[in-house]
Model the fold of this input.
Amino acid sequence: MGEVAEYVAGLHEPARSAIEGVFFIAREVVPDVEEGRSYGMPALRYAGKPLLAVVEAKTHIGLYPFSPAVIEASADLLEGFDRSTGTVRFTPEHRLPEEAVRRLVGLRRDEIDAASGRRRA
Done:
């Protein structure tokens, strides 16, 4: 089992299914991710760079796309969610819309590709 899978397996409901759902969508958007750690959190990594971490906190779930620019570019889909420079916060009862997750992950993937000179087919 990878770091993300182990982390998710150790969670209790309803946080488990909320976090698992975000990782599922991320893997659909970027199928060639690897599990690892970034900033001490279990994270999906793409092209050797952190793509996304989603972790349970005491009062919320934090989504970390490792890019303030990605959060800013997705602000229109994140109305009603608490966010800061590097984090989007949600709860199992008020989950992020799938469209928002897809945009966050897709933009982060594109950002990583651009920084490394990779081009999408």
